[in-house]
Amino acid sequence: MMNTVLLLWQDAGGDVATAGPSPLFWPFMLIGMAVFYFFMIRPSVKEQKEQKTFSDSLKKGSKVITAGGIHGTISAIDETQISLLIAPKTVITVQRGSISLEQTKSVYGGNTSSTAKEPAKA
């Protein structure tokens, strides 16, 4: 069986040719890895740095939204945990990394105030 395979790979001179990748394989492989890095890995690392910067900039009294969608005001900050005031006399403790964004504006661009005026009826 092995002799048959070797005979299939013999060239005209009688030497056994080595079966290897095309000479263009490695340049295309390097280009593919660079594309993968710039479109997949680099944006993820950049986003992680932004999230860490945001997490480090949190302070007491900031209005935030957790990754689970809970809106609250920071009442205490620890190295790993944050206490959120979510209703009068209701405080919950969450991990610092679970705070997803600061509530400066509504996620949808509207007013976050609960006393927002109703639109005028025509």
Automatic annotation (TrEMBL):
InterPro entries linked to this entry: Preprotein_translocase_YajC (IPR003849)
Pfam family, one: YajC
Lipid bilayer topology: Single-pass membrane protein
Keywords: Cell membrane, Membrane, Protein transport, Translocation, Transmembrane, Transmembrane helix, Transport
Transmembrane stretches, start-end: 24-41
Subcellular location: Cell membrane
UniProt record, GO biological process: protein transport
GO cellular component: plasma membrane
Family: Belongs to the YajC family.
Name of this protein: Sec translocon accessory complex subunit YajC
Organism: Aureispira anguillae
